Amino acid sequence: MQEYKVLVLIPARFESSRFPGKPLAPLKGKSMISRVLQNAQSISDSSIQIKAVVLTDDSRIEDHIKDMGGEVRRVDDDTVSGTDRIYLGYQRFFKEENWDLIINVQGDEPLLPGSEILELAKFHLERDFDICTMLRRESSFEHFADPNKVKTIFSEKTGECHYFSRAPIPYSRDNSGEKFEGHWFFQAGVYSFLPKALVAFCQSKASYYEEIEKLEQLRALEMGMRIGAYETKTELFGVDTPEDVAVVEGVLD
User: Fold this and answer.
1) 5-27 tens-digit pLDDT
2) CA separation (Å) from 233 to 116, 156, 186, 236?
3) Of 33, 65, 161, 210, which residue has the fewest beta carbons closer than 10 angstroms?
4) Would you state the pLDDT for residue 240?
5) What residues of the chain score a pLDDT lower than 50?
6) What is the rounded distance in angstroms from the CA atom of residue 14 to the CA atom of residue 60?
7) Which of 41, 87, 94, 37 is nearest to 193 (CA)?
8) pTM exceeds 0.90, yes or no
9) Would you say 10 and 54 are in contact if contact means Cβ atoms under 8 Å apart?
10) Are the C-beta atoms of 130 and 194 separated by less than 8 Å?
11) Are β-strands 227-231 and 131-138 bridged in parallel, bridged antiparallel, or unpaired?
């Protein structure tokens, strides 16, 4: 049986305009970043070797991860995005190790279980996509118009994403773009890259639609890359503000 190697990189910056020190924020007695790392470390599969590493630019986060026995690397560069940080981390510390996939798990996703990361990896390894992401089918339209909730046009037949937008898509002409009979797909900010796709993506300039929507996955589409998506049924909730902590703690065991 072939054994695959999957590198899970978790970018964690201390500074945040909306929530300074967010990675170290306590969630029921454990820091947020420790929960994210431990979830990734919990993955177990006989055919997939997984290494989970935090990438940070801050000594407080670095010391915290070391104290809990986790693996951490410093990437002190002022990067535009978490994707750029994992690219630099991969190039400097891991590119000689022949990884099959690199998965970017944001450090503010404490509700993302390791089992879902594993399913994303399996989905990608079994298909011919450059990048894969995770999405959730939504039948409620409560957040459909929220620009912070990224929507995608997704083919359930092929598993491929054709577009991502902050706008409420698909647009319902018969209902003036609002609620319609059916569902929409919310995209979670988790990405699995082929190593060559990560390198090509990060070495390319921001694209036209990326600049308009402020969604970097549109750059990949404009480059001609194919993006697949694994459909999860897990309720995902990223922590963006201090107010979100209470919401996440209400879900945690």
Assistant:
1) 999 999 999 887 778 899 999 99
2) 9, 15, 11, 9
3) 210
4) 80
5) none
6) 8
7) 87
8) yes
9) yes
10) yes
11) parallel
Domain that holds residue 125: 4-251
Render pLDDT for 37-88 as a digit per residue (tens, 0 to 9). 999 999 888 899 999 999 999 999 999 999 999 999 999 988 889 899 999 9
Question: Distance of CA 191 to CAs 50, 64, 114, 174, 228, Å?
Answer: 15, 25, 14, 34, 10
Q: How many domains in the chain?
A: 1
